[in-house]
Design a protein that fits this description.
alpha/beta; binds zinc ion; 7-stranded mixed beta sheet; Quinone Oxidoreductase, Chain A, domain 1; Xylitol dehydrogenase; 10 helices; Rossmann fold; 2 domains; 6-stranded parallel beta sheet; globular; GroES-like_sf; NAD
């Protein structure tokens, strides 16, 4: 057992396949044979820019963090998992000692070892080592692709349920119809949403959102010549209210806004469309230096929250929602690749569509020697 082919980012736009040592596991860890890995915007961002904010790729790093696999080896102290178990892998191992870990917000742990966030290697290899409690057994009715998709679904669960405190009968507006935005809509729908409003500048993405989880869709107006973004956001919010009959408060108003786009105009419009005393959660990452109207935040007493990955309870709830049939992840897997074709998978995700013109929602790469069609 010495064969651990891995997909390694060496520098900007420089990736290669390399043999890496098979990780040694601690008594409380398991070694997982990775089966399915979804490609995320952040993986592509590291490939193109070598960094995200203060996270800079200085040494070669294995990519990938949205994974499922089969337990290959268990540490001496592990109970509840055995060789052959199919698991979803939560990719952030936290310190368990710091104030945030102790307070039950381990996503804020300063010492987290998160897959494919420098300097830590990711999951696009044959083997990945993980603390046993972060390997969640998959119920029999979930596929290994579902297991990989639990990662972005947990991001949505964290934003909508944990931070957004969403409840049945409430209304949500989601800006940005990429995978995370779509999954936020799915979570709201699964939780009994009354209205799920999707916003995006691409009509095809709105069409998919409508077919999948949204009750209403909105295509914002294009900017006029010399129109500032704040002015455009005022016009967009007004048009959105009129077209979709969204009142400022009461029945039909927006209790929770999620921005999954990171676009300045979406943030501005989202704050305006949120009801008084409503909640706004930022989950999309874009240019951090943007202008927002603090008067809107103050006068409506908006709860403005940042969302970072996922925390306690998010993976289990994500798995439950799928297992209970409340969320179907299968329509979101648009592309599938063999391990050897990882480069094509990244190129396709980056372009947003494959050569046949099919739009990418989520591309999945199979582990080394794992058949593409396997579940
Ligand atoms: Zn991701
Ligand atoms: Zn910690």
């Amino acid at each position: 057992m010495s064969d651990n082919p891995s997909f390694v980012l060496k520098g900007v736009e420089d990736v290669t396949f390399e043999q890496r040592p098979i990780p040694e596991i601690q008594p409380d860890e398991v070694l997982v044979e990775v089966q399915k890995t979804g490609i995320c915007g952040s993986d592509v961002h590291y490939l193109l820019h070598g960094r995200i904010g203060d996270y800079i790729v200085e040494d070669p790093m294995v990519l990938g963090h949205e994974s499922s696999g089969v337990v290959y080896k268990v540490g001496s102290g592990v109970t509840g998992l055995k060789k052959g178990d199919r698991v979803a892998m939560e990719p952030g191992a936290t310190c368990r000692m710091c104030e945030s870990c102790k307070a039950g917000r381990y996503q804020l742990c300063p010492d987290v070892r998160f897959a494919a966030t420098p300097p830590f290697d990711g999951t696009l290899g044959r083997y990945y080592r993980i603390p046993a409690d972060l390997a969640y057994p998959l119920p029999p009715n979930l596929t290994l692709e579902d297991g990989a998709m639990i990662e972005p679904l947990s991001v949505a669960v964290h934003a909508v349920s944990t931070l957004g405190s969403f409840r049945a009968g409430k209304n949500i507006a989601v800006f940005g119809c990429g995978p995370v935005g779509i999954l936020c809509m799915a979570v709201a729908k699964a939780m009994g949403a009354s209205r799920v409003v999707a916003v995006d500048i691409v009509q095809a993405r709105l069409d998919f959102a409508k077919s999948y989880a949204a009750t209403d869709v909105f295509l914002p107006p294009a900017p006029e010549k010399d129109e500032s973004r704040p002015a455009l956001s005022r016009r967009a919010a007004k048009a959105m209210r009129e077209q979709l009959h969204i009142p400022e408060r009461g029945a039909g108003s927006i209790d929770l806004v999620i921005d999954a786009s990171g676009a300045e105009i979406s943030v501005q419009t989202g704050l305006r469309i949120c009801k008084a005393a409503g909640t706004y959660v930022q989950v999309g990452m874009g240019n951090p230096d943007i202008t927002i109207d603090m008067g809107v935040v103050m006068s409506k007493e908006l709860q403005l929250k940042g969302s970072f990955r996922y925390g306690p309870g998010d993976y289990p709830l994500a798995i439950q929602l799928v297992s209970q049939g409340k969320i179907d992840l299968k329509p979101l897997v648009s592309h599938r690749y063999k391990f050897e074709d990882a480069v094509v998978a990244f190129q396709t995700t980056r372009k947003g569509k494959s050569d046949d013109g099919k739009g990418v929602i989520k591309a999945i790469i199979s582990g080394p020697d794992v058949p593409v069609e396997s579940n």
